[in-house]
Amino acid sequence: MERIKDKIKEIESYLLELEEIMPKNFEDYKHIKTKAACERYFEKIIEGITDLTFLIIKDGRLEIPSDDKGAFDILSKEKIISEKLANKLKEAKGMRNILAHKYGETDDEIVFHSITEEIQKDANEFIKEIKKMMSTNKV
Q1: What is the C-alpha separation between 39 and 29, in angstroms, rounded?
Q2: What confidence score (pLDDT) does residue 129 get?
Q3: Which pTM value belongs to this model?
Q4: CA distance 102 to 108
Q5: CA dist 4 to 65, 101, 133, Å?
Q6: pLDDT digits over 45-102, tens only?
Q7: Number of domains making up the chain
Q8: Quick check: 72 and 24 in contact, CB under 8 A?
């Protein structure tokens, strides 16, 4: 349980750091250093969420997923997170992979929207659900 708490703190720290450098608009985001820093924090947040998901699966002795995205489905199946949140996190994981591995072109406006509007909301919802699970000793 301590490792789960530590991972939550790590993700919360990344969220705060992202918020501090978050550009106010798309034009500001397009500056290469801002864009690179925001994308890196997005990657770190998603990596942290994925790590946390696997910690929960391991600690709860849940079904082992075939891949990272499947881990979110397991938490949904176990009613730890909603199916809607699982799908949003799978999409974020896909975007993280595109950014990290530079698969083809990315649409900067979609990435900007994900970084400025989606990831913070989804990550905070995920953390809230995990804390609720911990308080009820569900896993």
Answers
A1: 10
A2: 95
A3: 0.92
A4: 13
A5: 19, 27, 11
A6: 999 999 999 999 999 999 999 998 999 999 999 999 999 999 999 999 988 888 877 7
A7: 1
A8: no
Q: Give the Cα separation of 71 and 90 in Å (integer).
A: 9
Q: Identify which of 31, 50, 35, 30 has the alpha carbon closest to the alpha carbon of residue 94.
A: 50
Q: How far apart are CA 3 and CA 103, in angstroms?
A: 32
Q: Which residues, other chains included, contact 139 with Cβ-Cβ below 8 Å and sequence gap of 6+? A: 56, 59, 60, 62, 78, 80, 133
- Concatenated DSSP letters for 10-68? HHHHHHHHHHHH--SSHHHHTSHHHHHHHHHHHHHHHHHHHHHHHHHHHHTTPPPPSSH
CATH number at 131 reads 1.20.120.580
Of 138, 7, 4, whose CA–CA distance to 79 is shortest?
138
| Structural domain of 121 | 2-135
